[in-house]
Amino acid sequence: MLYGMNLLLWSGEVTEDLLPICEKLKAMGFDGVEIPMFNLDLDYAKLGKQLDDLGLRRTAVTIRNLEDNPISPDAAVRAKGVELNKKTLDCCAAVGAETLVGPYHSAIGHFSGAGATADEWQWGVESIRATAEHAADVGVRMGMEALNRFECYFLNSHADSARFARDVDHPACGIMYDTFHANIEEKSMRDAVLAGGDKLYHIHISENDRSTPGTGGVNWDENFDAIAESGYDGWLVIEAFGLALPEIAAATKIWRKMFDTELKLSEDGLNFMKSEMEKRSGS
Question: Of 101, 105, 209, 236, which has the fewest beta carbons less than 10 angstroms from its beta carbon?
Fold first, then answer.
């Protein structure tokens, strides 16, 4: 198992200013960091070299918005979404990110007033298949993220995202499992984890209130039991949010401080993940 920390806890873009934090994360025992890929004009090759020097591997996360929505009825908007997804994958290749995860299958925070239509599903499959072909070319895997109903209407359950990835039908395209969204949407965490099967490429470990994993209401026993049963041995990445940046706090609806410090959350969360997996190491 590999253990990572999502740097969105500190910033929406990663520059050398965050390297001292990354160095501390490495010293704690993290294997890697997850890089927010929103600003596509940074020097990601340089950042990759700096993280190599720290001994930290990388994954990345991104989103799409209404103006570049891959399931838009407007073909030009869909094409822009594919173009930006491909550019993001190029940045992943430059920084050395192994997997690009997130809800870049559709526009985050946009709602039609209904569930996904057959047309939207097909447009999404076509857009993400084109994206996956480029991902294979640059050597990056993709993890489609299902979001809860308050953030997205296209993929809400992990059965949805698994079916979507299988319809995309490309080896570069899989899914990610997220404990925060599952806590809202899933009746069975076990079924949700196992739905991914061989398409489960990534996991986010996130508490129900987005604070320190292991301190809230997520059914962690069921989650970690299912992860162990699935045979998954890839990345477990902490995704937590705080008040460090107003724009991130506003986007994630974080209005109060729920942990001591970002580094304390990271250390406690890492110890929690490792202890939970160690309990199940013989299963």
Answer: 209
